[in-house]
Structure formats: C-alpha cells, structure tokens
Amino acid sequence: MDTDILIIGAGIFGLSRAYHLAQRFSNASKGTNTNKDACKVTILDRAPSPPLPPAASTDINKIVRADYSSPLYMALAHEAMDAWAGGNPLFQDADVYHQTGWVVMDEKGSDLAARIRANFGNSNREDVSVDLSEDDVRTSWNGLLSQAELSDYGSFYANPSAGWADAARAVELMAAEAMKRGSVRYEVGEVERIILTPERNAVQGMQTKDGRVYTARKVLLATGAWTSLLMTGLEDELGLEDDDRVENQITAAGLSYEVVANLTAAGEVLPPTKDGICKFTNARSFKNTIVTSTGHRISVPSENQSEIPPKLAQETITSIRERLPQVLEARKSADDIRLCWDAISPDQNPLITRHPDPRLSNLYLAVGGSFHCWKFLPTIGRYVVNVLEGRSNGEERDRAWRWKAVVGGTQRRTKTGKRNELTTSRLAVFHVLTHVLSIPLLSALSNKELELVLLGTSFYEAVQT
Ligand SMILES: Cc1cc2nc3c(=O)[nH]c(=O)nc-3n(C[C@H](O)[C@H](O)[C@H](O)COP(=O)(O)OP(=O)(O)OC[C@H]3O[C@@H](n4cnc5c(N)ncnc54)[C@H](O)[C@@H]3O)c2cc1C
C-alpha cells in the first residue's frame, strides 16, 4: 500500500498533525494552490479508530493549564487554551473543555510556584492567579480539603484560567474531523518493522505484524512510549551506537492512576465526569527496562495496563487518603486502575524533528509528551507539519524540540527550563469546577464537582522486569 505521508500512531501528536495537514489540503484545494500531497496521508495505529487504549492520549480527562515556569510552554499553552475555549470551532459546541480553575500547592522550600507566577506577570496575558493561605485552602469549597494533609506545602495559589478536557472525546472529535476532509485514511495494524530502501539510504515503509507493507515518501513516528521498541530493530540494522539511539532522546515511563466511581455516595465530593468518575493520579513515575536481543537497554510499556505492582497500588490509595480521606470512607480501594505510559525526555521537551542520521532523512519523530503535552492537541500538529515540510518553528522551538547531542549516555540539555519543571511535579494540584466562572474563584467555589490530581516527585527504575 503506497502513501505520500505515513503517520504511525494516533495519539495527540499523530492526530493533531493529520488534522492540520488535512486542513491545509482543504484550504489549498479551495485556492489555486494544488498541493501534490493532497489525499495521500495514512494514519496507521494498532488500535481501531481512536480513542482507544493503550494510547496515553486516551483517557478520562486531562489537565489544560498555562502554569509553566518556561515562557515557551506558557505561550504554547495559551495558544492551545484559546482553541479549547472556542477558538477552534471543533471544540466550540462539543462540551469537552471545562474551564474550572485550579488550586496549586507548592512544597516547602520550593520557588517553583513563585517562578510560574512571575512568568504569568511577564507574559502578554492578564495574571489572574490569586494567593491562598492554608486556611483558605481548608475552609473554601465547603471545607472539601479540610482534612487534607498539608504539612509538606508552603504556598498556595488559585488560577481560574486552568481547566480540564474530556480526553477521549476530544481525541475522537479531532480524528473524525481529519478523516472527514478526505485526505486522511485510517488503517489498523501493528507495525513490527521499519523497512529501508534496497540502497539503505532512506526509509521505504513499514511492515505490520500480519505482513502488510506500507510504503511512503515520508514517515512520521508518533508512537509515544513504544518508539524505542519500534526503532531498536532499525537501529541494529544501521549499527547505531547507544548514544545515537532514540532511547537517549526519549524513554518510556509509566504513571498509575485510579478511578473511583459514583462518588455521590461519599457526600461532599461530586464526580467530575457525567458518569460519576473521579480520577486520581499518583505522580510517581517509573521505567520498565529490558535488554534487547542485541544487548541494548530500553524501557518499554507493560502489556497489561491494569496490572499494577501492589506497592504502587497501595501508595496511590495512601495519596488519596492524605488528600481526600472522605473519598475512601465508603470504600477501601478504587474501582479501576491503569498504568499509563508516555515517552519522556530528560528536559521534558518533546522531540519534533527529522531523524539526524542521513540514511533516515525521510523519517520524522513527534514523540516525548513527557506527561504534559496532551493539552496541545488542538495546535501542536501545526508545528509538526512545519517540520515535515522543512520549515522552522522559530529558533526557540526548533532548539527545544530538536534531536539532542548525547555523549556517554548523557544528553546535553537545552535552556528551556530546568529539569522536571514542565510537569508540575513538585506541586499538588486540585481542580475545582466552579459553577459560575465569572465570579472570583475564592468566593465562588462550591464543591460542585472535583478532580484531584496529585503530582509527586521522583522517577524510579524498573518496578517490573
Ligand atoms: C497518567 C497520565 C496523565 C497525563 N496527564 C496529562 C494532563 O493532565 N495534561 C496534559 O497536557 N498531558 C498529560 N499527560 C501527557 C499526555 O497524555 C501525553 O504526553 C500524550 O498523550 C502523548 O501522546 P502521543 O501521541 O505521544 O502518544 P500516545 O497517545 O500514547 O499515542 C501513541 C500511539 O501510537 C500507537 N503505536 C505505538 N506503537 C505502535 C506500533 N508499533 N504500531 C502501531 N501503532 C503503534 C499506539 O497504539 C498509540 O495509539 C499525561 C500522561 C499520562 C501517562
């Protein structure tokens, strides 16, 4: 099967890119521009029509916020939030985005929250964040957080501009829109092998597990946490050294989350979704390192996302108990649990670039969501299209998203922010759905509905082997 552009992976990077490409084609076909790429884009994913697990992009809900200590990501998030809030007609009437505001708690001794808020002050948007005292946190929202363990936290603020989105539905909408425009085809298949041309100077295509072959002029890997696993055979074939392998750019890391349904029984806390589901994320992330048959160490997602090491499950329950003990009054455990895998990079920048090896000059990557990139679904594809078409996204973005030099297994970092700051990993974050958004947050919040997301600190190796 031949196609001009083959996208492997229908998560946010693959779909957003397909959507923006489809949009460009349909605009071109209205004018005089006859783009020869039109109508030949294929998305290939192992899961039939998105949204389906195991993609990280498929989820109950995801946070949408501009609270970043990096100006680059704050600006990118503002751009995406404009689209979420109605700038993109696709989301305007779909009721997938909820601007709820959130409450952020920073650890004692940390200046991360202060730097984020200083960044708001320096941006071209109004800074709507407001200080909270510990007492405010305990007494607001009908005392919802009155029993929370707050002794580790030294500062608190609320930001009414943040929100959350119905992740699965939003992904589904974007996929349907990309297909509707006619230039994008969706195929189901698990890619097993990346095929080189006979001259071994370019990628010819992909072979699926069931033996189908897809050839393409350009190939984009948007394969998230599975990227290293997919690339390792090709890297072996080309004899790439460890420093030149994708594992040193991004690696698979997991996070666990638990789902508690029908919270109405617990009294004060109403569920955030229409189905009565509340999601708690345990921010302790981990890798699952294997040694490949050729001796390379790579992290790969676990196959069964509902199998979770008992220690981690217990830790997640404990983290719920420390924040919202009332949720567990009527139950001992959660109703569902998932290990969700994402590709992370050392500096939490995604990799949106062409592969640097001259023999792979038609192979592109858009991976490395690093636990924070879902919110960019409406807009990130535009930047991926630029890379595919050889255009710059501006010096700062190009530098942040390029393939980084690695020496002795250590990546040279960009200047886009300190390590581990793009996810709010040192903050505990509470999303609170306000009823009337225009009323100032402190006085307006009633615990109508609540999503609690706890983001912890450390990364640890190999809970499973
Ligand atoms: C628990 C958790 C919570 C998060 N919360 C937030 C949040 O609140 N806000 C936020 O902005 N971000 C959040 N993120 C980050 C965000 O979800 C991810 O960065 C983003 O979804 C990654 O998208 P992706 O397209 O790179 O990968 P994915 O969504 O994982 O998509 C990759 C796709 O590639 C396919 N694929 C892989 N290998 C193959 C193959 N060999 N053949 C065929 N198909 C293949 C997979 O089936 C999958 O569909 C969170 C991540 C996690 C794990």
Automatic annotation (TrEMBL):
SUPFAM superfamilies the record matches: FAD/NAD(P)-binding domain
Family membership noted in the UniProt record: Belongs to the MSOX/MTOX family.
Entries under InterPro entries matching the protein: FAD-dep_OxRdtase (IPR006076), FAD/NAD-bd_sf (IPR036188), MTOX (IPR045170)
Domain FAD dependent oxidoreductase: 4-385
Alphabetized UniProt keyword annotations: FAD, Flavoprotein, Oxidoreductase
Gene Ontology MF terms in the entry: flavin adenine dinucleotide binding; saccharopine oxidase activity; sarcosine oxidase activity
Highest taxon above the source species: Eukaryota
UniProt-listed PANTHER family: FAD DEPENDENT OXIDOREDUCTASE DOMAIN-CONTAINING PROTEIN, PEROXISOMAL SARCOSINE OXIDASE
Species: Rasamsonia emersonii (strain ATCC 16479 / CBS 393.64 / IMI 116815)
Protein name stated in the entry: Fructosyl amino acid oxidase
Cofactor(s) named in the record: FAD
